[in-house]
Amino acid sequence: MTRPVYLVAALRTPIGVGKPGGALSSVTPIHLLAHVLAELPRRVDLPAAALEDVVIGCVSSMGEQGANIARLALLQAGYPVEVPGVTLNRMCGSSQQAVHFAAQAIAAGDMDLVAAGGVEVMSRVPIGADWPAVWPADFPYPLIHQGQSAEMLAARYALTRDMLDDYGFASHVRASAATRAGHFAREILPAPVTIDGVPRLVTADEGIRHSPDRARMAALKPVFQADGVVTAATSSQISDGAAAVLLASESAVQRYRLPPRARLAARVVVGSDPVLMLSGPMPATRLALQRAGLALADMDLIEINEAFASVVLAWQREFGADPRRVNSSGGAIALGHPLGASGARLLTTLLHGLERTGGRYGLQTMCIGHGMATATIIERL
Q: Does pTM top 0.85 for this prediction?
């Protein structure tokens, strides 16, 4: 019999634009992740020595993000040497998978307190930097760009250019409104940076267009297919960021008097068509709901990673979900997609959103390169 797993703390950095000169581009990945890890146990007055493992997702685990950044960052954060750390790569779902692995250790009875999260500083370690220079000639599937898959998904679900542009516009509108209303204030840990020798504090997500121009979006050319419908404005932003959550067993909650803010009700990962690689959230959603014994109508808030607008719109068309419950504070089109950090960022936003609105259940799901998807359901307590 598995043990219940509780979510007791969750936070993230602001998300910076992932290019030279971006708000967080002057910070090394180790320092950015260490900044989050140092604060995580402080939020619940927990000694870092109580943590039994740190599980971190990072997609491009090389260069400044290599050499097991989980271990390097926790040491940089001042954790005792007795606390171990491990880094994993399930591509875009990396930090959501990190949460799953951490939860499984607790559910199995192997551990009581585990930190999980992710980091990606794409301004310093570019996307695709870890890809092999040569692919096997006999690989059984064509390896195409995710943007081409986004076009295929749009065609399969008869999604028009206007539909995608409307969704991209709405993502910025929602993210801007959430920022102005202070909805992200509790989840964001301001990040200290130094730009041109001047220290400053980054407090807000950099990529949001607070006055988005719908007409300008309509004038953009398709990026991945000459006669396509996917543009830069309906694709996730290349970004920098880090996020982490703290998971605990019931005995740890009692022993350290931790706040059991939510219970993990289901966690799944699935494989899907590696060419139409963005359809995975659909079977992942079905399996997660089945495991939790719940229906989609029970979900008060839903966070789907906005890798592309077509991913969310295809999912909505498949399930008929209330769009007001889906990415209600905007998503990766506006906020950005720091690959390895996005799963933990989505979970952090989902938890705070449920607490802010009084919702009970939340669903998080993400498409993953090469045809996979993760899904998590949490119950706010």
A: yes
